[in-house]
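Hi R.,

Here are the chain sequences for the assembly we discussed:
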Amino acid sequence: MGMVGGGRGAFIGQVHRMAANLDGKIELVAGAFSSDPEKSKLSGEDFFLDPERVYGSYEEMAQAEAAREDGVDFVSIVVQNHLHFAVAKCFLEAGIHVICDKPLALDLGQAKVLQKLVHDSGLIFALTHNYAGYPMVKEARRMVAEGELGRILKIVAEYPQGYAVGDVEGEGSGAISNWRADPKIAGASNCIGDIGTHAHHLAHYITGLEIEELAAELTAFIPGRELDDDGNCLIRFQDGVKGIIYASQISNGDENNLNIRVYGTKASLEWHQEEPNDLIVKFANAPRQTYRRGNDYLGSAAQENTRTPFAHPEGFIEAFANIYLAATAAISDQIEGRPAPEAGYDFPSVDDGVRGMAFIKACVDSSQNNAAWTKLELG
Amino acid sequence: MGMVGGGRGAFIGQVHRMAANLDGKIELVAGAFSSDPEKSKLSGEDFFLDPERVYGSYEEMAQAEAAREDGVDFVSIVVQNHLHFAVAKCFLEAGIHVICDKPLALDLGQAKVLQKLVHDSGLIFALTHNYAGYPMVKEARRMVAEGELGRILKIVAEYPQGYAVGDVEGEGSGAISNWRADPKIAGASNCIGDIGTHAHHLAHYITGLEIEELAAELTAFIPGRELDDDGNCLIRFQDGVKGIIYASQISNGDENNLNIRVYGTKASLEWHQEEPNDLIVKFANAPRQTYRRGNDYLGSAAQENTRTPFAHPEGFIEAFANIYLAATAAISDQIEGRPAPEAGYDFPSVDDGVRGMAFIKACVDSSQNNAAWTKLELG
Amino acid sequence: MGMVGGGRGAFIGQVHRMAANLDGKIELVAGAFSSDPEKSKLSGEDFFLDPERVYGSYEEMAQAEAAREDGVDFVSIVVQNHLHFAVAKCFLEAGIHVICDKPLALDLGQAKVLQKLVHDSGLIFALTHNYAGYPMVKEARRMVAEGELGRILKIVAEYPQGYAVGDVEGEGSGAISNWRADPKIAGASNCIGDIGTHAHHLAHYITGLEIEELAAELTAFIPGRELDDDGNCLIRFQDGVKGIIYASQISNGDENNLNIRVYGTKASLEWHQEEPNDLIVKFANAPRQTYRRGNDYLGSAAQENTRTPFAHPEGFIEAFANIYLAATAAISDQIEGRPAPEAGYDFPSVDDGVRGMAFIKACVDSSQNNAAWTKLELG
Amino acid sequence: MGMVGGGRGAFIGQVHRMAANLDGKIELVAGAFSSDPEKSKLSGEDFFLDPERVYGSYEEMAQAEAAREDGVDFVSIVVQNHLHFAVAKCFLEAGIHVICDKPLALDLGQAKVLQKLVHDSGLIFALTHNYAGYPMVKEARRMVAEGELGRILKIVAEYPQGYAVGDVEGEGSGAISNWRADPKIAGASNCIGDIGTHAHHLAHYITGLEIEELAAELTAFIPGRELDDDGNCLIRFQDGVKGIIYASQISNGDENNLNIRVYGTKASLEWHQEEPNDLIVKFANAPRQTYRRGNDYLGSAAQENTRTPFAHPEGFIEAFANIYLAATAAISDQIEGRPAPEAGYDFPSVDDGVRGMAFIKACVDSSQNNAAWTKLELG
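And here is the predicted structure of the full complex:
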């Protein structure tokens, strides 16, 4: 495994490395950790890398690693949003598989270019919508797929955080990174783009339903900010399913409060990211049930994506590592010439990335149009 | 106290009676419990009433009680929605104070007529938005009023229930009463009218904020129904405050899941009706706090609206009884010629009823107009 | 109904009156509210009583009411512990049914005298172990009785409170009433007597199991106190069932934290008084279940002891009122000559009172004997 | 790092490896994974080891690694209980630092021998009482140490599990491994030894209090078992602090339900292993507080033992990895000649191991003596 970005002090790079380390099956051997070659070198030392494989630019790395017999099997891309496209394109063109942090790209156009590249090349491309890695999210998905909820009627997905509220009254210390507030780096949306897409991905991952159109109101509560720090959407999913998706960074005291509720004709379920080992299932006229991670009564996906017995809690890093395991299993299959499993792979794909970018675009367009109903350009 | 409606087997009538009984200060002495005089008489026997004061019609009752020296001090109106107007008008015109179940009337026009009648007559008129009776809701209100949350930024109020979901697939037994699905009896909305208004009232009661406009999507998931069983609204409150209000009767497995979250610049709070003795308060950068009913550290309203020590849980009936206590205190003041307290009375008023009817009308109008932003006609 | 004790400002008297009032079926018509006739009179005015039936002593009241044709059907005894015996004896001897606050008496000897009196007279005697009135406690009992838990193996019942902890360091304001710390008024134990007996009663009510012997350590953490404010017991129930019962008044920050867990070979259950509307049921190898008050899937006792639909929370007063309903149903049966129902009545009896006094005595004896195993003298 | 035990399919070995892997600072380079050399070799392949450093016996490994210039810095011991002593002794005598799974040894005598060896050699010896690795446990410890709870009065620590209950009625599949039920391999206790010691360690880790004496009742509910599957203890800590510690493997439906409550004169705290990211703190007369992992308001130990921002849940493996980080920091200090930090190291030590063995011995002795008070032989 190689890495682009994620040098010293970069949070998401460290998460990717811990996720890769956890199971002792992936080794970081190369990287371009910073656009500053000196910094990149220092980070390489932190990670005990061969200095020869620590690069000053991602282009150099892609070229060199593609040329080595023992070149990296895949690259993890953990740079800022606006660089995802160029870096991913570069490695894909060099024939190297990619695990990329979300969002996929700066805008929908770039996303579709990458999508075509991936489909044409046949390379593996995984996007780290990490919440899909939680075992109980996989159980939720199984329940919907096997019809245990009946016909889905309504979905409510929410992702309130409060970490930026201090900036609303100007006494704040710029909790939202400058780059996240800059459309040239972050894209057309901050809050919906950064976390709203997680809520959206979760809704799609669990139910498989596409959004047809949405009405969104995005707000920048923080003075002087161009991009949203709060967004609320009414959703019309396919098949008449209704929903609400909202996200916020000014919801004081909420930490990482991603929640989803899926309501069906036979049962409903709810999952709270902050208590990820539980899945609450509510059948009509029956006691409320709590499915708990690590138990034998769960489906195979939930069981296989678990490392410890019941009630030895697992968390964010383990979920992240599950995405890595699934993606690298696919990469191994390709490298060793094994066919893909019939059921396919279970990691967020470039298509999910396109879906996310279409969601962001629709939210921004709708909001600029006074919350008019706006269709997703998935085409 | 007299009662109109609420005879044998009527749920809400019984709740009103328990609320009135609880503190041993109110006695039911007269009633017109049914439009069928025979049924009314039988109910009167259930309640140990003097048969002479059990009436066959509300008109008769209003006239007779107004004429008696020992006539009722007030009447509780617990008939179906479409009769609220006529009954309330009749008693007000007879000079009798009123405690009326919500919604105030069948439509906004009727509501405004009652509002004028009340204001002109000076009579006490209380509307039983009972959730405002919970001590911890009163504590929430105090915190907002005293600025402990800072400037309010966002409100999310939700009221999902699932009891009618069985009817979506036609296997149901008509969980929503026929009359609630009939616009002539229930008014222009079922779900928003019946429970959405509770969420709306709670938001206003706690924050004092008025809705300026809203974008609503109401849905009738149950085949053959004219009125909504689910509704989702984006809200623009005054002063740039944003919000979401939604209600549902097809949210499978949810019981009486009324929740509200109020986010301010200094702190936020959340209250869950199903665990009403707790109020969760989240200050920025501080441990999460749970304020619990019955403690000395609470404000006076929360303390005074409590009957048992901390952690001897109180519930729905006690909250309902708090509305009765506040309304009857006001009635006593009038009867005995005491001035109203400077801080005013703490019970939902006819103005809250008008506010609720305007909310319902805006939701229905917006939804019929493809969720266009629609102003509230509070005028 | 008449009342002895419970005048102005007395907490438990007010709870009894609210419980009696709630359902509109019981009327307070007589009382000896204080040993001070003047105070008794003032309380009588508070409750709108005929002055003639407000008495200056319980002896006078018993005699007078027994002599009246319209004399009270029963008396509620809410005096201090050391008077329970004399008052109860007086009314029983006058042929009047009794609802008595717990504990039954000052010591086991008195308790057995009352037990004999009740059995010999055939009068109804109810003890307000009010936690047995909660619907979900009744559901727990049903589940055990019908074998849904299998064979019971272990019971853990706890009742920590923290309200008296301020007195441990001497800065306190005497949170435990003086009389509760005085063996002549409270009996041989304070903490175990006042609240430990509730935990004990709950364990017996739910499982029907008798304690064979126990090893107890009682502690008086508050300086200068003769009676315990904390007590921990190892329990040997009949049939090899093991258990722990503990109670505390110095468990800082705990409010009324009565909890019970019952473990069986097929399933276990837990109930928390502070969230009384839920009953958690844990079957081996199955999702955890939460049975919720007000649902149709519950047994008949849970359903019948409920006043509002699911998730319209009920609490302490409603549970208390359920004891009143059950006891007064029995009293009505006697008065109107109806036979008792085959299944018997569902309220805590004089036998439960004797059981509780034997539990207290065994705890005190064991503790004085360095926690030696001590048998219960149920005889 | 080397490893003894923990080959293919061994749960605890895998946990140790994940904990070591997580932070990318420790590399497994040698091992004796099984007493069967063939199996050991296969496990070595699983972990990508140099075959030369995969050994057929721990003695061979200790000798060979001690002799290599690049020999392992420390060994992780994850064999069955009865071998801990011999393996640990062997590596300590070879001058190699040790991380050892608990319990320290088969009995108190062995434990004290190891203790002397460690103290005499000055080598680092860490025992993986992993629950002490949770950040919020460290916060609890800090609060007690800094006096935020005032004087400690009472401790309740419990560890109920239900996984073995199926064997009580004989229909079970031997959920408790045979070796755990065999005193020659597991030691004198199964349940208290395996999990009771975790509860005991937690109580000591958080409060620093020693147990003076205890009264224990151990039970073997499973027919035919020599060792306990349930145990309940009354505890007398030093300084008059009272407590309860209990553990169980037949508490149906409980999973890994380790909980601790510590009550002080100023405040109390509770921590639940199944929700490890929260610490509940209850000050007298103040709202209940929930301290949450990842926040700036926590003490330094809680902050430093964290890898992700607030509400990105961390769990069991991260806590385990914290023990590894602390122990390997100490090992690095020794190897690189740095002095130990003034505050000392924060990992469970050989002294904790001796303390645990003394606790087990006291429980077993007391139980065999009908729960007589029994002192801990810590001397």
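The first helix of chain D runs from residue 11 to 21. The domain at 134-307+349-375 of chain D is CATH 3.30.360.10 (Dihydrodipicolinate Reductase; domain 2).

Let me know if anything looks off.

Best,
T.
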